[in-house]
Amino acid sequence: MIHDLELLQVGKTYPDGTVAVSGFDLKVEKGEFVAFLGPSGCGKSTTLRMIAGFEDITQGEILIKGRNVSRTPPEKRPTSMIFQNYALFPHMTVRQNIGFGLDIKKMPKADKDSKVDRILDMFDLTAFAERKADKLSGGQRQRIALARGLVVEPEILLLDEPLGALDANLRRIIQNELKLLQRELGITFVFVTHAQSEALGLSDRVVVMSNGIVEQISPPKELYRRPATRFVADFIGSNTIIEGRPVGLAEAGSYAHLETPLGLIKGRGPAGAGLAVIPAEAFRITPSGAAHEIRFAGTVTARQLVGSVGHLRVRLSDDREISVETHSGTPEAQALTPGSTVTLGVDPEAITLIPA
What we know:
Radius of gyration: 24 Å
Low-confidence stretches: none
Number of strands: 21
Distance between the termini: 36 Å
Number of helices: 9
CATH superfamily of the largest domain: P-loop containing nucleotide triphosphate hydrolases
Largest sheet: 6 strands, mixed
Strand order of the largest sheet: 6-7-8-3-9-10
Shape: elongated
Oligomer: single chain
């Protein structure tokens, strides 16, 4: 099967020996939306620049539509890249900015004008076509950057934190437009972000990176519910991580067990795993609890109600404090105040066991 994009053991090591990216493997299908997620300096933008051809690779291969482009210059790759600062030309009009890539391709003027007119209309920019780009709002400049990237009809659109400069409300609006646009056009998107909400909300799959290596590649729901490494468990969501000693072997289709300072915990994961990961929203405040639940006793140290969500801090019997999220409208949540004793129940199905 030919994929839109393949990275085969791609790596980048700088002359001073610094390893920016190591052993990156990825296969992206046509029309897929893939997000690279991780903290600053993890290698996600470097990887995107290697795909675009703006950064040389020092190991591995990059294939687009089955063709090795590892040594192909950027202008000859079927990609288009959008940067966080938009990289628009302030002295050019909106029309000139959008048509710039077609000028580079030496497209006949009539064909270029037709394409630019069509994409101006698609992005609702026709009324601003003759204005200078630097005179427009952040949201309008973002649309210009997207239009300029798409007008050249790339096989793959590469986006390097393109929403980072927008305020929160405008960011949400553009996020929605971006996902609808990607579905409508069917173009493969590779998107770099450090914002979890963007990666989990927009993408079909998320690549989590740290220190130049890939920690996990999963659909958003699986990534959130089943972290594969401690880094992912710490980085994604709000999880309680409990260390313990593996007890026995997990049978096919059953739970693995972990002996911890808080008692026996069982969950989904490999035999021999030494950490239990419990999402904040998996805890249930209960006076008794179902028979199959794992139960913890604790004391509420803080409570904050934000809309329909109640955020609790609870100190457990071993003095660790954990985060608990519950519906703020439940009688149990309403009755809790700092100092209240509480019993927390967790379904073992919501617990993931991972290697220590």
